[in-house]
Write a structure and sequence with these properties.
Layout (H helix, E strand, L loop, with lengths): L2 H27 L22
């Protein structure tokens, strides 16, 4: 494997795993809010049945 291929592999691994780590940290620090009232604009959306 050439040096440029290894460098590209390392950069892509850092981007993928770094994004995963950043997402986990963000969700751990700011979980989904539960103090909001039930319902919303999309509550009355009718989904057609599968065929």
């Amino acid at each position: 494997m050439s040096g440029s291929a290894m460098a590209l592999m390392v950069v892509s691994m850092v981007v993928i795993w770094g994004g995963l780590a950043a997402s986990i940290i963000f969700l751990a620090r700011r979980p989904e809010r539960e103090d909001l009232p039930e319902g919303g604009e999309d509550e009355h959306v009718v989904v057609p049945p599968h065929r």
